[in-house]
Amino acid sequence: MSSEVEVTRSHPVPDPGIPEHVERWVDVDPAASRRAERQIAACFGAVPLLALGFIVVYFFVPKTWAIQFAGLHAQAQNFWLGLLGGVAILLVGIGAVQWARLIMGDHEISEERHPAGSTAEDREQALDEVHEGITQSDLPRRKLISTTLKIALPSLALPALVTLLDMGPWPGPGMRAATIETTIWAEGVHLVTDVTYRRIKAVDMVVGELVNAAPENIQDLNNDPAAKAAATAKAAIIIVRMDPNTIKIPQSRKDWQVDGILCYSKICTHVGCPISLWEHQTHHLLCPCHQSTFDLGNSGVVVFGPAARSLPQLPITTDSEGYLVARSGFTVPVGPSYFERDSTHDYQNGDN
């Protein structure tokens, strides 16, 4: 009686083995096998065409076109990109599933559950089974499937690469020079307060004063808020007045200031935070984000913190009425560093 109970516990069903194998239709009918192979190859073969269609839609379908159908209103380009890309991925999946169902080996295998750790012999056996699986895939003999699959999978990468163009223009030297390395500052542009846009007279500034300022021509972008925000992010400045006898002005920058009035970028050279924490007794400007500290009494050199570059200085002078104006734009790019940036012209402590 106890032996019967033990058998029942070990084998709860009468015959836990593999049922009798039934041949698939494609295994017994060569015509069905060839037909299945052609169907799978058709799925894989259509993928490059859909990928090519994706690229054509991306470049040649205007973004202004729309689709109106059964209450659907969608941008035509997005609709077709989604449809073509989605169907291409779907066909790869369908082809792979049908390949596994109809072409790959169809022989059941049963084995006893083994401990988690494998012996060397078990690992060798596993490798043998992997090679057997490769053989069972029948790829060496099914040249049509293997060829179309080799074309289909790489072609799926093309739509993904094309959509990377939506991340923005390629940041080559010309593009950088026209965008992140250029501000709207230019010769003769007046320095104005950053809120009221009031012009600033040199005689009105007192020693120790700091003014948050902007270029007067920023107002030309009032009708384009996005462009104005982008321009402000690069062109924002601070103006400080210090006693000329207490600061270091290199010979190369003698004409960049007006009787101790100097102008610097408001954007920290570490990660681009706006700076305006001014210690007028030490002439230091402190960034509130990561405590980078710049000595405005010594051409904006870094005296503490993670910033690696001096704060860019804007050359200034006065017009005929005594208002502060720019001599030129910034001579180096403002804001944080980036890999392609040329730092050879950044001011270093002791430069003349």
Any chance you could write out the topology, listing elements then pairs?
Elements: H1 2-10, H2 25-28, H3 30-60, E1 66-69, E2 72-75, H4 76-103, H5 120-136, H6 143-155, H7 157-163, H8 173-178, E3 191-193, E4 210-215, H9 225-235, E5 237-241, E6 261-265, E7 277-279, E8 284-286, E9 293-295, E10 301-304, E11 316-318, E12 324-326
Antiparallel strand pairs: 1-2, 3-4, 4-5, 5-6, 7-8, 8-9, 9-10, 11-12
Helix pairs in contact: 3-4, 3-6, 3-7
Structure notes:
The chain has helices spanning 2-10, 25-28, 30-60, 76-103, 120-136, 143-155, 157-163, 173-178, 225-235, and strands at 66-69, 72-75, 191-193, 210-215, 237-241, 261-265, 277-279, 284-286, 293-295, 301-304, 316-318, 324-326. Strands 3-4-5-6 form a four-stranded antiparallel β-sheet. It has a four-stranded antiparallel β-sheet with strand order 7-8-9-10, with no helix packed on it. It has a two-stranded antiparallel ribbon with strand order 1-2. The protein is elongated and about 100 Å long. It folds into two domains: 21-107 and 121-167; 174-326, Rieske [2Fe-2S] iron-sulphur domain (Rieske Iron-sulfur Protein, 3-layer Sandwich), CATH 2.102.10. It is α+β, with helices and mostly antiparallel strands and 352 residues long. It has nine helices and twelve strands. It starts with a helix and ends in a 26-residue tail after the last strand. Strand 9 and strand 10 form a beta hairpin. Helix 3 (30-60) packs parallel to helix 6 (143-155).
